[in-house]
UniProtKB/TrEMBL annotation:
This is Crotonyl-CoA reductase. The keyword Acetylation does not apply. InterPro entries: ADH-like_C, ADH-like_N, ER, GroES-like_sf, NAD(P)-bd_dom_sf. Its EC number is 1.3.1.86. It holds the Pfam family ADH_zinc_N. Residues 16-358 form the Enoyl reductase (ER) domain. It comes from Ruegeria atlantica. GO terms for molecular function: crotonyl-CoA reductase activity; NADPH binding; oxidoreductase activity, acting on NAD(P)H. Keywords: NADP, Oxidoreductase. It is an enzyme of class 1 (oxidoreductase).
Amino acid sequence: MSLPDKMKAMVTMGHGGLDQMVLHKDWPRPEPAAGEVLIKVAACGLNNTDVNTRSGWYSKAVTDATTGDAFEEVSDEDPTWGGAPITFPRIQGADICGKIVAVGDGVDPELIGQRVITDGWLRDPSDPGNKDKTGYFGSERDGGFAEYATTLAVNAVPIRSDLSDAELATFSCSYSTAEGMLTRANVTDADTVLVPGASGGVGGALVQLAKRRGARVIAMASDAKHADVAELGADKILSRAPENLRAALGDEKVTVVADVVGGPYWPNLIDVLERGGRYTCSGAIAGPMVEFDLRTFYLRDLTFTGSTVIDPQVMRNIVQYIEAGEIKPALAATYPLEELREAQAAFIAKQHTGNIVVIP
């Protein structure tokens, strides 16, 4: 197969607002190095990580909710998920669905033509369990907001599914994040799981994956999105932020809170956890700074777990669930690559329920 030397790519030039993303129509196409594959991108999902990395929200100098806009102050030392600087220009986008069109040295050429989705966590092949040696696709290396992308061969996961490319591009980040959270919290069929922000990508994945484990799921979402959340299988749906959460729950006994929202409402979530309950977190879109009463934490024997870098097996499990039809995509909208700025604006404004996907 003859491959072009140049490609179309949306390139992030630095931390800041939406104007930092610049479309290039003649960006050099990458070549796969040893142990890597070249993927022709058919679709690439959009996630909070893309927005937060561009804006620099991960910096501890930022205390506001995620806005997707430029912040007044972003520290040069810790502007990314890993607390370290990244190199610009950078092509973002972690959730690729596409086909392998070339391979580097040491990679089986039989993989060419294979349809794949990407595992975003880039692990050291010699020390894959070491979280300190882990990077993220579209952050520590170029990702999928382009016509072509390279990644480690082990991060291109073969998939066999009748779902469309856009539908498959909704799974990688959101669903692996959600599965990682539920795994850290040891969720089983004995649990009742409360999911704030259930209409978002990770929130919707939490609903489906907690139900897959047999748990009872109580979802929280704005009233306009209740019908969409109901289709994901939630057992009970509450408004986004009930004035009296305990009263809204009634007789429900919440044993797990799976949260990516945080913000000023956060103490209400902790207050409704049963004794011995678990709180698991992988985001703070409503704000990272919360009011925390240590007495609630220790007097109720609560367990808190943060979840970011996940085990490699999690992504393989997600693929198995997709192929078995045990989970379904929540595709909200697709945008052409040229409209990535508009897609991010819609994502930030939460105009859609579920995941947004970009098509090169």
